[in-house]
Structures are given as C-alpha cells and as structure tokens.
Design brief:
two-stranded antiparallel sheet, cell membrane, transport, Growth Hormone, Chain: A, 2 strands, transmembrane helix, globular, 2% strand
C-alpha cells in the first residue's frame, strides 16, 4: 500500500556535533543501564530464582521452567510498553519518555534486590516477582526504540546505521555488567550467594540510574521530532492506528526480522549458561565469565556490521548474517557439548559476536527507516517488542521443552528450531525494501508537496 511521505530533504546536520555526540553517549549509557537491569533477571533466572522463590520441595526442572515463565511475562509486557511510550514519544517527544523508563527500571531492580523469598512470605514471593517483571517489561518496551531513535535522529542520514547501533550496543554492554557483577558474587559459597550475594547486583542499579539520569537530562530533543513539531505534524491522531493502517507489512516484516537474532541472544544469556555449568566441565562462575567475554566482543561486532550496512545496505548484511547463522549453529552447539572449557568459551564467541551480531547489527536503522517521524517511535517499538516476544521471550522455555523432548540427550532440536526461525527472519528481510537509499524520503512527513512512497 502507499503512504504520503515527504520528498527527500538535504542532510543539513540540524544537530550540532556536540548535540550528536551527547545524544550518542546518552543513548548508549542509558540503554546500558536499562538492559543491565532487565538482563540481570535473565542471568539470575536459571541460577538463583528456582531455589528462592518457589517451594524447596518442587522439582528443580519445574522451578526453572516457572522462572522462565516469569521471564516471559516481562517480554509479553514489552509490546504494551512500546505502544504506551511510543504514543507519547511520537506526540510529546523522545527525551521525557526515556527519563521515565530509566527511573522505572532502576526502581524495579532495587525492589527485586530487597524482596523476601518464598520461605519468608510464601506464594506472595513469585506473585510479586511477576508484577515487578511486568513493570520492567513496560519500561524496556519504551526504552529500546527511544534510545535508538535519539541516536539515529541526531546524526546525518549517511551515518544512521552506525549511530543507531551505538544505542543497540547498550544491550550487550548491560549484559556484560550484569553477568560480570553476578559472576563475581556467584563465586561465593552457595549459602552466602543464595542468602545475600545475588541481591547486591540488583541494588547496584540505583547508582547506575543516577548516572543515566544526569546524561539523559542533558541531551537535546531529537532534531527530526523537533522539525516535525515545528511543522505541526505531531500532537494529532493516534500513532498506533496509523502504524496499523499505513505500515502493516513493514511492521510484520520488522517483527519477524528481529525474532531470529533475539532468540540467539536470550538462549545464550539465559539457557546456555546453566546448561554448560550443569555439564560439569565449567563452574557456574566460569560460564558467566565466558558469556561476559563474548559480550565484550559483541559490543564491537554490532557497530561493525551496522557500519557495513551503511556502505552496502541493510538487507545484504542481514541476509549474509542469516546464512552465517544457519551454517554455524550446529558447530556452536558442538562446542558447548565438547566438555572442554576452551571450546565452550569459543562456543559463546561463535554465538554472540558472530551469529547474533551479524544479523542484529543493522537492526536499529533497518526498523527506524521503515516509518515516518511522527509514527517512528510507535512503529519501531511495536515491531521490535513483538519480535522480542517471539524470539527472546520464548527462547528459554522453547529450549527447555525441546531439550526435554529429545530426552535431554542432545541439543539437535534446539538448533533445528533456531534454523527455522532464522529462515523466517531472512525471508522477512528479503521481502522488505532496502531502506539505505530511500530513507531520506521517510525521515520526515512534513512537506508542502508530498510524494507517494510504496511501503513494504
């Protein structure tokens, strides 16, 4: 279908270099703090929560499954948060929404760090945990798109891919912090770690939030949004309705495109760590350090693939990444099953900075360039967060189920499922139009002489 968008506008560098640099730093560090909070739960879900927030008489496998169900609750809340914060982000601005999401995330992490366990308050413990996880999900639902757009919209069109990726790297950076700090305390004796050691990483979130808030208050509003507001092209209508009516295929393709890489991200962070630790070849703490090291490489790999997409296009890079993922997923699992610590560490490196990053690096610009300015926050939030439910949210549960289905004898079913999901993501990318050469047309819908642009 077609939608009325503006003709290409010159890249005038509306934001100063200082504003752009500040926006990039703010988006990166703010996203890092938020994902530290969100991913810390994922890291703890397989290691700590089954023993603390469910009856001790419960089967360990069932306890882990219920922890992953609560993990999924946070992912289910993310599209709702995306619609909510996207609505106000498209009507009143990006900056204020990002401040609110940051405060919400920090408050929830501190509450989790102070929570009484099942032994103290019984069934109320998992119920409260579900509520806190849903609030986390709402906040992250508005965070990813907002941070990505603040970075992308502060730079010229030619650098949009790598600028958006700076905010995207907040995810692996937050993962590094979460797993590294949790790993430090995981080295304590089990009794100390389960009684108080696991709580410290959650409580440390308060200090990170203070730093993030200072940076977010200092950044200027997005130049693209400011231009649309000046032309009176915001404050009207309901963005989610416009997204549904004008961008149905763009939204569908965007959602499916992110599902494959997000499945791999969550699988490594939540399911693989306790899996390799249970095998006996590596200790719990060592497995977390391996994940941390691969995430450090991930921080540099994501901008690299985004830079490639600025040169060669979003689709070619992402399709090549999907092909790499299909080829390498069985070797990756072979490394995890090798019972050799060095090979297991190599497995994390194959999974994060190679398989996941090659598909994921260009994703910020790929999604942002599908929507006009007045609908972009909502459109990007909705597509990414629905994809996160399909990919990351279901990853631990699906992996657990497939592993049980294979009588806990191999990871073949998990690898096959990932290949199928990756092929779906690749098809969605293939059916999408390349946005690198036409994204100037989609940058702002304010114009005296609109032109018709065919949506995906």
């Amino acid at each position: 279908m077609s939608t009325e968008l503006t003709p290409p506008q010159p890249d005038t560098g509306a934001a100063t270099q200082k504003d752009s640099r500040r926006a990039l730093i703010s988006s990166f560090l703010g996203s890092t703090v938020e994902y530290y909070d969100f991913l810390l739960y994922g890291a703890a879900a397989g290691l700590v929560f089954p023993a603390l927030f469910f009856p001790k008489s419960m089967d360990a496998s069932l306890g882990a499954t219920l922890s992953f169900v609560i993990l999924l609750a946070g992912y289910l809340a993310r599209p709702v948060g995306g619609i909510l914060f996207g609505h106000f982000g498209d009507r009143v601005g990006r900056k204020n929404m990002l401040v609110i999401t940051l405060v919400m995330m920090g408050a929830v992490s501190v509450c989790i760090g102070l929570m009484p366990t099942y032994e103290t308050i019984g069934v109320a413990a998992p119920i409260i945990l579900v509520g806190l996880r849903i609030i986390q999900g709402l906040a992250v639902g508005g965070e990813w798109a907002g941070a990505t757009l603040m970075a992308a919209e502060h730079v010229g069109h030619r650098r949009r891919g790598i600028a958006a990726s700076i905010a995207v790297t907040g995810g692996p950076t937050g993962s590094v912090l979460a797993t590294l700090i949790l790993a430090l305390f995981a080295g304590l004796p089990d009794e100390q770690f389960l009684s108080w050691g696991w709580r410290i990483p959650f409580l440390l979130s308060a200090a990170l939030v203070v730093v993030g808030l200072y940076l977010r208050y200092s950044v200027t509003e997005s130049p693209d949004f400011a231009a649309a507001r000046t032309a009176d092209d915001v404050h009207t209508g309901v963005p989610i309705l416009r997204v549904i009516r004008q961008y149905p295929l763009s939204s569908l393709y965007g959602m499916l495109a992110v599902a494959g890489p997000l499945f791999m991200q969550a699988l490594l962070a939540v399911w693989v760590v306790p899996y390799v630790a249970a095998g006996g070849a590596v200790a719990r703490q060592d497995a977390l350090y391996m994940l941390t090291f691969s995430s450090v490489l991930h921080i540099f790999a994501i901008p690299f693939f985004a830079w490639l997409s600025d040169r060669y296009g979003r689709r070619p890079v992402m399709l090549t990444g999907a092909a790499v993922a299909v080829v390498l997923v069985f070797p990756m699992f072979a490394l995890f099953n090798s019972n050799n610590p060095w090979l297991i560490a190599l497995g994390f490196i194959v999974g994060n900075p190679i398989i996941q990053a090659s598909m994921y690096g260009p994703i910020g610009a790929f999604l942002a360039e599908k929507f006009a300015t007045r609908d972009r926050y909502t459109g990007v939030s909705l597509t990414f967060q629905l994809g996160s439910v399909l990919g990351a949210g279901t990853a631990p549960l699906m992996a657990n189920w497939l592993f049980e289905l294979d009588n806990k004898s191999s990871t073949t079913y998990i690898a096959c499922y990932f290949i199928a999901l990756t092929l779906v993501s690749a098809l969605a990318v293939y059916l999408s139009k390349e946005t690198l050469r036409r994204h100037a047309q989609v940058a702002s819908p304010v114009t005296a002489t609109p032109v018709s642009v065919t949506a995906d």
